[in-house]
Amino acid sequence: xxxxxxxxxxxxxxxxxxxxxxxxxxxxxxxxxxxxxxxxxxxxxxxxxxxxxxxxxxxxxxxxxxxxxxxxxxxxxxxxxxxxxxxxxxxxxxxxxxxxxxxxxxxxxxxxxxxxxxxxxxxxxxxxxxxxxxxxxxxxxxxxxxxxxxxxxxxxxxxxxxxxxxxxxxxxxxxxxxxxxxxxxxxxxxxx
Length: 192
Prior knowledge:
Blueprint lengths: L1 H11 L8 E2 L5 E2 L3 E2 L5 H10 L3 E7 L4 H10 L3 H10 E7 L5 E3 L5 E3 H8 L6 E4 L10 H4 L2 E4 L4 H12 L11 H17 L1
């Protein structure tokens, strides 16, 4: 019910939802992104306190694929409402010189953490579990990683898959099977 109400409200004010603005750092900014001290342990604690899941958005200045996501996918009212209601979003810069602290306690420039995590593409979304082992890095603890720009359907399916903790289910339906099923369900609805 809570989700339905949020989506309905977002649809009613859909004209007010627009593409993200660029910040001084050249990265896209949306109302649902959090401005934090980038201590991922604290961010996870705050996300949990709000009943949300932590997701890291890794972007870079001038990224045409980040721009595509921020102009075509994230501004769609149902997408924006779902993210804002269920996720605590922290933005990181692939080439950033400001510091961030990983779950394992390592504090370093964001660009060094990106190298440590093996992040090569932007945008990359890193979805974290509700609890991260103390010695784990963010990338080692991630329940899902989405490198690249995808359509709204794929993106919303991944956010939903993570939100529903489908990665924990032992039903043989990994994300690809879940996504294929959701595509078929959407196609069936559109053919009615």
